[in-house]
Amino acid sequence: MFLTLTSTAKPATDLGFLLHKHPERVQSFELPVGLAHVYYPEATKERCTVALHVEVDPIALVRGRSALGRHFSSDGFALGQYVNDRPYAASSLLAVALGRVFGSALKGRCTARPDLVDAVLPLEVHVPALPAPDGADVVERLFAPLGWAVDARVVPLDARVPRWGDAPYVDAHLTGELTLASALEHLYVLLPVLDGAKHYWVGPDEVDKLVRTGGSWLAAHPERELIARRYLARRSAYVTDALARLDALDDHMVGRENEVEDGAGSEAGNDAQSRVEVAEKPTGATESAPGEPPTVPLARQRAAAVVTALHDVGAHRVVDLGCGEGELLRDLLADPTFTEVLGVDVSARALETAERRLGLDRMPDTVRARLRLRQSSATYRDPELEGRDAVVLMEVVEHVDPERLPDLVRSVFARARPSAVVVTTPNAEHNVLYPHLAAGTMRHRDHRFEWTRAQFRTWATTTADEHAYAVSFRPVGPEDEVHGPPTQLALFTRVEPTR
Questions:
Q1: Number of Cβ within a 10 Å radius of residue 8
Q2: What percent of the chain has pLDDT over 70?
Q3: Most CB contacts within 10 A, which of 1, 167, 339, 366?
């Protein structure tokens, strides 16, 4: 069982930092089914290749079947438990080895060189014996939507005996430009999917693992049902649970991305430049002239407006719901007024990025004690959100499908019932001031809708009336006389019943 991964980013040997494996060493790791070996067939500044070689012990595999799970196949005959393709064909066992050997890289962690974690690298993956009983086409369907160029060629069962025909395997080459963590995530999830049979017990924790590992890309994958069904060994209850949680991820997959006016190519994501298709500034916007105060990005103005609103209602215990990668959390932690800060996002990957960017491991204990990060969905009830002074939904609602908005309203206003709620969202009327934004299109392709000022007021007023809140509105950003501000803010305050 064999896999190689190659980087051609210069210096290519940086791959060793990301994988936490030195190119000059051969390392071996014990697995429940044998040994995993890691070594580098080549390691130059121009090209660096790491090989993962797994030696499967068929006898240990059989003896450990009670621990590894009931989905172990006997292959239909008595010796099938011992004589099979498991030592050679990439399978769920190879995915287990990836998680065991490259666990830190899979989670996007690199203590020695944290600057490399978010770097997009030119990568090549070679799996010479990849199970594909449905043919090479399925490999294309699984990997191509994730940005890989796929070259998967069916191999003969035995090249010396052509009449035996083709083997149920392909020799797969994948090439693409991705972060290393993304590449490992794709392999970790999709290798068991192609194998079609897991060799360990599939329980509820496998649903957590699937959503946690694939959440940043699986929600929008065109074959997500096939992936969930095969990954979870066709257990219908688990598949239903996974798809429901992926629906929640798809509603606001990244918590809050950078909008067009916040600047393309910012630190929110390495693919931000390709996602943003319009200009960064409205018509007439200019750079600051010498001697004038620098122009403040709208993202910073928005965060400042939220903090001001929180101060105005005297909030101390605050939930940033849909916190994404921690843009607002940093401002909240910098202000000692906020004694308890809870960052919540449906994406585990976003929370890991927020933890890294906030520098939790270097944060003073007094500041760190004020912050908690939690994976949860804005559209489901979460008791952890209850009893807070304020909940913030900053650039979140527009990422939720309209039919799911009532679930979000119910979760926040009816169940969590904080003393105050702060909501910001784009003002659709302002879009005409972006010269390269085509008429009728939205600022970001993940937006499900963008409200005019009247539509936002109608939604906010109705929500407030139905749940015993008062609401007021504030502009955020430079306000145009005709088209209003780029961002609109609603401040809800709970109305206490009169006695």
A1: 16
A2: 82
A3: 1
What mean pLDDT, rounded, does the chain reach? Answer: 82
DSSP one-letter string for 273-291: HHH--S-SS-TT--PPPTT
* Nearest partner of 213 among 361, 107, 76, judged by Cα: 107
Q: Write out the H or E segment, with its range, that includes residue 187.
A: helix 180-195
Angle at 345 between CA 344 and CA 348, to 5 degrees: 120
pLDDT of res. 299: 86
Going from the N-terminus, what domains does the chain have, and what CATH number goes with each?
2-201 (3.30.1610.20), 260-494 (3.40.50.150)
Sequence-distant (≥ 6) Cβ neighbours of residue 192 within 8 angstroms: 91, 92, 95, 198, 230, 231
Q: What CA–CA distance (Å, rounded) separates 296 from 302?
A: 10
Contacts of residues 132-140 at CB distance under 8 Å and 24 or more positions apart, as own/partner, are 132/168, 132/169, 132/170, 132/172, 132/194, 133/168, 133/196, 136/170, 138/194, 139/170, 139/172, 139/194
229 Ramachandran zone, left/alpha/beta (phi>0; psi -120 to 50): alpha
How many whole angstroms separate alpha carbon 249 and alpha carbon 218?
9
Q: Which residues contact 230 (CB under 8 A, 6 or more apart)?
A: 192, 193, 196
